[in-house]
């Protein structure tokens, strides 16, 4: 048994993926940052039309129908915004990555991971056939999958490894 | 149970971690429950000094030691009774009762019933592992018939109790269920229990790796669990399955599992957490005949016990004035009991006989853990050093924000370690901090010092720890980077989500 065998058999829709912030095209970088902070998301999807509501939890809302045109992440904030004067008032369109590669919910987790490694992506938007934005695939989803898959080994460990009892007392 | 925070208190998980060594067996599901409890409590906004954990006796009942709040490790089965008294004496407290299937349903069965029936404002959490763990493996009131244990060598002949049905019988206003191996679900359900005012009853399926390790396998197996669990959401159809292709329908009074493509969606039951009959039906659905219902089964508002009682006292006082306890005592018939000469009974006063039995059990527990698969072996035996952690890039703690950001961009890293004069790690500063606290919020990066923006005293690991330890911290807390330090606290490396996933993805790769 290895991880690849597991990941090949799991659809992305079987994983718990991350949510995202969402803003319409033309939003200023300043407002985009505010949206990401308010939603506590490291990824913001930039869309054309449609309301920019929700933090990406609900999968059934209409706001998800907006068309994806770009992705803007914390890495972009780091590299293109934080110490570049005058960026805050520019539209997010200028700093986002346009037409990001996406993946469908029925693709396997292994495929998603391969795509991410190949392109050095840390975040991969998940979009279904009708264009609904479903979430963000990231390494976190795999970490969480592993934790749930091997709870005895991973979850049920002492918080502080320095204070591991030398002998278990059965409680 | 809800308490409104009077002052703005921002606590973190660390505030709830005590300095006690956790004494559960490695691999015990209690660890997961503890971690989630410590994680959600800051979100409830209740101050530490307003929080009390009361337990009875058993493995689960060691819980209060590990919480940095008030706590009482009380008498076997009596935690609900003690907690009831406390809730009346000080209605401002947020009280958690931690119990197990033995403590709560056998030894303290009646106390549990009455605390629930009275709707005392408590959060009662029952860890159900279907075994007596602390006393080393006898069948419990929730063990299934036929369970072979040391006290039932030919299989238990008893009918088990169903904790949800017990709570329903006691008219519980909040009934929920979750499982230790599903941390997201567990955290969300704990939060719901905390929010409810009145008695909240939460059953958690918990893995006793030592004495009953296979009890919840079907429900905890990540690959198949979604076929065995019905996640409840108020107002939503009862649809389940890994591919969400099955549903629950009522046939007369009996629920049945149907394939979604064979029925109309409106035949499928819709969850209503305010419906008592529905809660009883959900509670009666036993796995494997049905999927196990998880989440909030029932949630209704009723007056809570302390509120009603205190209201009556106030009314009585308004009508008749404050009472006088002394006067009440003296109003009764009184007499004095005289002391008499007692003939003393001889006793050798020595301790209990040593049977040697315990040694045998300890030996059994010391047996090396069975390694189930090569991959699990990799998780627990391969160390973090094998990930070849990146050489850490550091800045001194007096550095400016501008310098830190420049360095991070130069090295193309998302996480900077901050050190003091002796090169000891004092903080961590990540891209999220840049987004959350700096970009667009700080005008002049050269004027600000990194120490005001970093996370101080981050959790660290040592290189010789197993990979599973890093996974644990990453999954429970969502830490994307973990600094590694040596014994002197100097950083030796840094690992990220990506490093761990990358390494494990290639581990045992088929050639
Ligand atoms: S005996 Fe079982 S329940 Fe008790 S600490 Fe050990 S694994 Fe946990």
TrEMBL record, chain A:
This is CBS domain-containing protein. Keywords: CBS domain. Pfam families: CBS. Residues 96-154 form the CBS domain. InterPro entries: CBS_dom, CBS_dom_sf, Diverse_CBS-Domain.
TrEMBL record, chain B:
Residues 387-445, 454-510 form the CBS domain. InterPro entries: 2-oxoacid:Fd_oxidoreductase, CBS_dom, CBS_dom_sf, THDP-binding, TPP_enzyme_TPP-bd. It comes from the Bacteria. GO terms for molecular function: oxidoreductase activity, acting on the aldehyde or oxo group of donors, iron-sulfur protein as acceptor; thiamine pyrophosphate binding. Keywords: CBS domain, Oxidoreductase. It holds the Pfam family TPP_enzyme_C. SMART domains: CBS. One of its GO terms (biological process) is cellular respiration. PANTHER family: 2-OXOGLUTARATE OXIDOREDUCTASE SUBUNIT KORB, 2-OXOGLUTARATE OXIDOREDUCTASE SUBUNIT KORB-RELATED. This is CBS domain-containing protein.
């Amino acid at each position: 048994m290895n991880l690849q065998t597991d990941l090949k058999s799991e659809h992305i829709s079987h994983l718990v993926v991350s949510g995202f912030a969402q803003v319409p095209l033309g939003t200023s970088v300043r407002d985009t940052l505010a949206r990401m902070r308010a939603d506590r998301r490291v990824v913001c999807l930039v869309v054309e039309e449609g309301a920019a509501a929700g933090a990406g939890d609900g999968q059934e809302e209409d706001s998800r129908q907006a068309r994806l045109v770009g992705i803007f992440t914390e890495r972009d904030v780091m590299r293109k915004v934080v110490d570049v004067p005058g960026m805050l008032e520019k539209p997010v369109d200028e700093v986002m990555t346009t037409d990001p590669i996406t993946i469908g919910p029925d693709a396997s987790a292994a495929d998603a991971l391969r795509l991410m490694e190949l392109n050095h992506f840390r975040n991969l938007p998940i979009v279904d056939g009708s264009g609904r934005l479903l979430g963000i695939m990231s390494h976190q989803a795999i970490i969480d999958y592993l934790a749930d898959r091997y709870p005895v080994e991973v979850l049920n460990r002492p918080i502080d490894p320095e204070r591991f009892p030398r002998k278990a007392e059965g409680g | 149970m809800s308490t409104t925070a009077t002052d703005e208190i921002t606590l973190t998980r660390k505030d709830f971690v005590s300095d006690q060594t956790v004494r559960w067996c490695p691999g015990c599901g209690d660890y997961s429950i503890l971690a989630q409890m410590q994680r959600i409590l800051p979100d409830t906004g209740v101050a530490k000094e307003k929080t009390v954990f009361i337990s009875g006796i058993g493995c689960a009942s060691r819980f209060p030691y590990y919480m940095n709040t008030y706590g009482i490790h009380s008498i076997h089965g009596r935690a609900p009774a003690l907690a009831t008294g406390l809730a009346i004496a000080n209605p401002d407290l947020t009280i958690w009762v931690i119990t197990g299937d033995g403590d709560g349903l056998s030894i303290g069965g009646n106390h549990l019933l009455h605390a629930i029936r009275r709707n005392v404002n408590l959060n009662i959490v029952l860890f159900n592992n279907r075994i007596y763990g602390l006393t080393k493996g006898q069948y419990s009131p929730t063990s299934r018939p036929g369970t072979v244990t040391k006290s039932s060598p030919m299989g238990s002949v008893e009918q088990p109790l169903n904790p949800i049905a017990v709570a329903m019988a006691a008219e519980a206003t909040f009934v929920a269920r979750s499982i230790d191996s599903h941390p997201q679900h567990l955290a969300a359900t704990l939060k719901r229990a905390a929010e409810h005012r009145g008695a909240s009853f939460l059953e958690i399926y918990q893995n006793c790796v030592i004495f009953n390790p296979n009890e919840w396998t079907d429900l905890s197996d990540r690959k198949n669990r979604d076929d065995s669990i019905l996640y409840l959401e108020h107002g939503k159809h009862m649809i389940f399955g890994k591919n969400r292709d099955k549903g629950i329908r009522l046939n007369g009074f009996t629920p049945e599992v149907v394939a979604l493509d064979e029925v109309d969606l409106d035949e499928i039951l819709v969850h209503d957490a305010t419906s008592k009959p529905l809660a009883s039906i959900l509670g009666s659905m036993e796995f494997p005949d049905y999927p196990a219902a998880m989440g909030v089964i029932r949630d209704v508002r009723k007056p809570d016990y302390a509120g009603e009682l205190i209201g009556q006292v106030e009314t009585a006082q308004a009508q008749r004035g404050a009472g006088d306890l002394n006067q009440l005592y003296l109003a009764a018939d009184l007499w004095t009991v005289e002391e008499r000469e007692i003939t003393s009974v001889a006793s050798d006063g020595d301790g209990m006989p040593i049977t040697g039995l315990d040694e045998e059990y300890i030996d059994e527990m010391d047996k090396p853990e069975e390694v189930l698969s090569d991959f699990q072996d990799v998780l627990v035996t391969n160390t973090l050093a094998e990930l070849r952690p990146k050489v850490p890039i550091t800045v001194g703690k007096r550095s400016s924000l501008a310098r830190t950001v420049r360095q991070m961009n130069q090295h193309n890293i998302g996480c900077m370690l901050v050190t003091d004069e002796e090169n000891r790690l004092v903080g961590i500063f990540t891209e999220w901090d840049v987004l959350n606290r700096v970009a667009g919020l700080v005008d002049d990066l050269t004027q600000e010092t990194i120490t005001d923006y970093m996370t101080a005293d981050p959790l660290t690991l040592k290189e010789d720890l197993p990979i599973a330890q890093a996974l644990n911290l990453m999954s429970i807390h969502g830490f994307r980077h973990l600094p590694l330090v040596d014994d002197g606290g100097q950083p030796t490396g840094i690992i990220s989500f990506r490093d761990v996933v990358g390494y494990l993805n290639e581990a045992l790769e088929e050639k």
